[in-house]
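Sample intake sheet
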Amino acid sequence: MQDPTASDDRGTGGRRFRSPGGKALARLLQELERTGRGEEATRAVERAVPGLAESRQQELITEAVGPPEARPPARDRAPRPPAGEVGREAGAGAPSPREAAERTRAGTADAESLAVVYRETAERLAERPRAPGPVWRSLGPWTVPNGQTYGLSRVNVSGRISALAVDPANAAHLLAGAAGGGIWESADRGASWAPRTDDAATLTTGALAFDPASSGTVLAGTGEGNFWARLGTGVIRSTDGGTTWAPLCTDPFTGRGFYDLAFDPTRRGTVLAGTTDGLYGSADGGASWTPRRSSATWSVAVSANGEALAACSDGMFRSDDGGAVWHPVTLPTPGTFPYTRFAVAIAPSDPGVAYAWAADADEVARLWRRSGGAGWARVPVPPGLNTTQAWYDWFLGIAPDRADQVYLGAIDVYRGDRAGTSWSWQSLSTRETGGDSIHPDQHAIAFEPGAPAVVYVGNDGGLFRSPDRGGHWEDLNHGLAITEFEYLAQDHTSETWLLGGTQDNGTNRWTGSPTWTHVQDGDGGDCAVNRDDPGTVFHTFYEMNLERSGSRGDFGTWDEASPPVPSGERSLFYPPLETSATAGRTVAFGGGALYVSRDNAGSWKRLPFPATGVGSAMCIPHADEVLVGTIRGRLYRTRWQGAAWSPLAALATPRADAWISDIYVDPADTDRIWVTHSTIGGGRLWHSADGGATWADRSAGLPPLPLNAVEVDPLDRDRLWVAADLGVYRSADAGATWEPFADRLPNALVGDLVLHPDARLLRAGTRNRGVWEIPVDG
């Protein structure tokens, strides 16, 4: 996500995002609410912006997903545990697959139950025999040149990196964990990459660690603590250096996220884990775990002498016995508890030196240094540092050969050098003169064994390597196909043209090459193409910020086209955008009202919802009719009456209080409507044959997961496909029966589908595994 207070507003539609927790938190809240995880949204606010009054917490959720009337009611939400507690009964394990499925279908699933359903769905997909026929293939992006930085230089980008590890026995051997895109391996210092966990129960990755006693053994903590914690399914292990992986343990981590893993080099088999659920220790190489502390733990460090430090939401703690007993560490001027983020590191060249790097509840950054018996002392932090997204952007590293050289990651990367008692700081990621810039929003750092000047940094834009301690950078994003797509749009006149909005890597265009073209900066949201004139295309930033290009989206050809939205009106972080599916110049944009244009977004008409709501999905079957759905399950229609649009008229609601994620209306027969829901706990696919007067639930046979998109074959209206949070599914009988349609498709969240009617190609946009296509007729 972009810095919400930066002076550089490229890619924001001229607006700055200033809400506490930044844009990353707003996006996370929308992600949780769309699946009905309202209680988890409240906890996310408590973790990201601790100390807020409950009324202010609800205001932040309202800013992200609309007023309370537009959100599912709280009647099914479990009581909140105390801040920092684990939020489950002591000793309770994950439910059985059957129990988890029943809870999910009933809408009462907790994090463990939902994660079990994801795991069981992935296992069934993996067990399904591969039959002759079409298979999915990747369209990349293999890389995206001209990616955005906050400095003068541009870079190649890929997607969000959440974890890094360098083989201690082979400096050329790297492992990178993508937030929702799995584990990737390189044998040539990042020049080329191969995905290694596409068939795993979850592709969400939070932590990676090589065993220093046997570098062929690697552990990975699934469930990305920063964002995708709820999809964690435990610890997986590789015994061949990261090429193949197998589950090692599920409990007690099902439905939880990892931040860090650290082996104790002095006690073989001893591993420490920092998770959203607390601090854990293992004495058998990660096969079983014992809870040590219940507060969220972001960082653990173990020295060559066996000293362990842990950075937790309630402070720093120390252990000398392999992590069995932890003692609090008193820091000078410790800040306001609980912390928003905390990291700790011990100097490899001098275990007596350690650093602690924290942002507190008042958004104040603090850095401390310990030197031998001198104890801990405050160190000045870099000038201009921004901690708004500290809960999401944070790392700490110490140069392997210099105890007085430290690297800090927040939105930017900083290097501090100590000379005597003085410190000097420089930004390594944003440079206006000299050197290179890299993408903002930092998550992971690693150093090359035997070459202490070589630094690796992972952030929202991918992976970057510096040969000279951050003075210069090269991107390692060639072949790292981990871009996170939110929406796709296509040109019906070309089978090799797509436009896609991506998380923090702008809007990008595919024209047949695995190298995609970066056409606009910022947070790429929904996008659309005029059916009559495919040279006229549209894309959105966050909130109600829309641009139009008359040159097929070439970089630098975008003009502001946003509707006039009343101050304070809420919308989704990524509002829905549509153009007419047939002919005409009709464009619709959904926020706290429906905005409709008949001249390619040149002028707009605002149509208020009959009841308070926030638009979440739309369809324009032809230029004179628009359907819009809301996050509370209401469905409306407007028609052009020759001189004006009719007021929005309510159709029957397929399912009340359920987030409508997609709408399909048959252009040849507008009485035939399909609607998907992403809220669990009920029907998630509905069909109407009478224009929305009555509805039939077609969810039977689909896994009880959120559904995000539906496509119908224009040559056979009984043939359709739906995209779920895990997998794509096909029906040949109007939804009466379903089968997986996922051969060679990674187990990633599928957010959008588009079907090219002439090329007969179905395309899927995934979260952190790029775009995939399959010929639907074989």
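Comment: Helices lie at 22-34, 38-48, 54-65, 97-106, 111-127. The longest helix spans residues 111-127.
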